[in-house]
Amino acid sequence: MKKIILIITVLFSYSLNANNIRVSNISLENLNDISNWVNVEFDLAWDNSWRISSGPSNWDAAWVVIKYRVNNGTWTHAIISQANSTPSTGATLDVTPDGIGALVYRDADGSGNVNFQNMQIRWNFGSTDTNDIIDIQVHAIEMVYVPEGSFYVGGTTGDEANKFHSGGFSTASSYRVTSENNLTIANTSGNLYYTASNASGGDQTGVLSLSYPKGFGAFYSMKYEVSESQWVSFFNSLTENQKTNRDVTDATHKNSDAVVSRNTISWTGGTASATTSAPDRAVSFLSVADMNAYMDWTGLRPLSELEYEKACRGPILPKPGEFAWGSANIASNDYTLVNSGFSSERITNPEVNTGNALYSITNGTINGPLRNGIFASSAVNNNREETGGSYYGIMELSGNLYERCVTVGTAQGRAFTGIHGNGIISSTTGNGTVSNWPNSTTGDGYSFRGGSWLNGADFIRVSDRFDGASIIASGNNRLGFRAARTAP
Prior knowledge:
Layout (H helix, E strand, L loop, with lengths): L4 E4 L13 E11 L4 E15 L8 E11 L5 E2 L2 E7 L4 E5 L6 E5 L3 E15 L8 E14 L4 E3 L10 E3 L8 E3 L5 E2 L7 E3 L12 E2 L10 E4 L5 H8 L4 H7 L41 H11 L2 E2 L2 H9 L23 E2 L7 E2 L12 H4 L10 H5 L5 H4 L15 E4 L4 H4 L31 E4 L33 E4 L2
Parallel strand pairs: 1-10
Antiparallel strand pairs: 2-3, 3-9, 4-5, 4-8, 4-10, 6-9, 7-8, 10-17, 11-13, 12-15, 14-16, 17-23, 18-23, 19-20, 21-22
């Protein structure tokens, strides 16, 4: 009988007060030494979960991927399958057709904390030798399901820069996305158009092919921006050669191992592991190459800027000057923090009956991003405005750090076909290897949406596209990102 010696490790089970997602009790069960597969069993839990059949009609979920290494070699992505996989009581487990990962979520309506125990995912381990020593990592990232359906982009009486509108009509006429069919960008009736009052607005032409994710089809978005702990977990699984290009502390990034604009990541080089003293904080200073590598490695993909607007407002008609929480109301007092850097970091003076977000007016002396989900845990009342949540329950889509989404404003952006990462990055450069993603070298293909802690209110509005087609490859203290996955 085939005997595999296992050393089991866990990553991405980072603690976050808003969700506290965690993986525990990993083991291997039901080894099939003839067909070369085994079940990876684990417990998966997170807080403040939901599933609802009315209104947004959606749920939150965990994106689960498995990594392994043989005899202390390089970490490799595990291919899994639905066959012989078993969800725990109360959970649905959807393994994606490509075998890259699985989505786990409630199987019925409800809200509150979840603890899915003894879940099993089949890992097709292939030709592993009988005496190999194998390390296993189970990674879980919290996502939010955005259902299929029509929605509107841009087109308000507000003064958002370069906003979308319906072609052939005034800029106050919103455009309704009704399918994933080809979409022409032109200032004629029936087409999508947008203003371009500055050079970074976009070229105002082209066609979005059937494959470009327009937001009509169902997709999953990360609930939060990528955190420092998520980045460090990814980084520490790379080879030394790969780490050299992904080092956020080098001269092309924040150029320090010290805290810069609240980025706390440090790496001394060589075989050392990178560290963070604020694991739940949204990570900044990442370049386009860093983003693409992370999304490829986790089996996710970039969010398009059309999907960004749907993720914010859902199917509701746009409102003038609205933010991600669905109104133009916004806090205007300096925030005060307690427990900075910890999972319990919170704001002691959130505003009531208005939208809370970190931007230039509320930033005060903070000078950098906050931990993910801070407004949900700090709010006096649990509503969209005070928590800063989107229609679907996605957090910090306005303020904190810029969202980098695939633009419709350049040929490179329009070439995006929604391909997902396959869990593998270049062994020599540490770069992502997916075709038709925005360019890692030049940055062409991304837009900057939702503003940051350093921007004024105009930049954090849902329809604002001041940087709708900006071409910047490097990272800085205002730039973050979140990933997506087309629903299986």
